[in-house]
Amino acid sequence: MKIKHIWLLLLFVGLIACDDDDDTVIVQETVQLTAGSADFSTYVSIGNSLTAGFTDGALFKATQENSMPNILSQKFAYLGGGSFTQPLMNDNFGGISLGGNRILGPRLVTTGGAPLPLESIIGPIMPTTDLLVNNPTGPFNNMGVPGAASFHLIAPGYGNLNGLFTSPATANPYFVRMTGTTPDASVLQLALAQAPSFVTLWIGNNDVLGYATSGASTAGPTSQGLFDFSINTIVAELQQANVQGVMANIPYVETTPHFTTVTHNVIPLDAATAGLVNGAYAQYNGGLQLAMSFGLIDADEVAQRTINFIEASDNAVVIEDESLTNLGGLGLPNYRQATAEDLFVLPSASFIGTEALPGNPFTVNGVAIPLADKWVLVPSEQAEIKAATDAFNATLKSAADALGFAFVDANALMQELSTSGLASDNYVLTSDLVTGGVFSLDGVHPNSRGYAFLSNEFLKAIDATYGSNFEAAGMLSNVGDYPTNYSPALQ
Description:
By secondary structure, this protein is of the alpha/beta class. It is 29% helix and 12% strand. The chain contains 14 helices and 19 strands.
């Protein structure tokens, strides 16, 4: 493969020591960039929202241009990589229309505080990306489809417009924009039709994420059997295509700010209000004592379920917990106050403390009205999701090994971001919402700086497997060159 230099001229850094009879010059040469055994001539990215460039709850042009695959393609171009075509949206609002009717909403923004809908700042929006008017023309090197799970990559008809009108829908509007004259082709078929020499494959997040973001109130994670079948099918097709590449695994959901930003104890009450609320729960608390006398629950569960508010700014919210002993025979619901072990989904921030009946302070959600299952992941649900993630990640690592692909342990990276943080250039990146520098306003997807950080991790993995030297040659991205958020005025 033809090797290019990073710079046309050598950069000299010298320390010159002079005396009467000795002049010494120490010269440091630049490292010549090499691809090793990798062939980047035709690069195709396969995946979901994480590879599409999804940010701030939407897909829009500016963040697509800063998507991880697009950043990688710019690095690959130094080593013979070709053009990289993406299915760009028509605007920077985000959202999709269908014949002038909005079917997906625009992006989130911030004015320095909590995430806000774009329309709350600039007024009503009709996305100009319309499935019936301005779909782009492929083929596309970025085959990242927001919302795609593992099995969607091999599903025929996933990009057929007619599938949007079935119940449940069998198509994805983002993929409808990409299929062109072959509406029944699968994501994998369209990717491999380009005869890629190198691919990135990052899939599996949505096999657990939808269940998690619903508070485990919908159908569970993808079954292990279906996940394994999907990944094994993808592996077989990639092996037949004799393609090189890199894969990544699935981060634990609790490492993302979508599940860690809202805390369990956010209810401020004065003494009078606390007393009134406790009075309302007196019958429930008394019923727990009765249940214990019948031997239905023990003292520990009575203590766990007893609801008590005090005069304080940090009372714990009341939640429904299906994992508690069913006391329906006594007319007792599964209520308890939350603990630090419970995880609340990010949208709950705008729901907790609101009044179900406006003007009635005794209908406050999270106080008089317990939070429904969809707002919280209790420990038993977290354990279920973690077990599924671990099993899926074992399948993904085996797949990468079978293909001889490089591998990025995204799960380990996100765990480090959520604990100690990770240094990158002059920044210490963390998983904190807004201020951490990595995650966008939806709390799940990276921002553009986060995608640049991830592109560096992919390049390091490629170096380790294929003998390239992007890191040693100084070709990693400076994450500070990429924005953490986009102005509401961006159009």
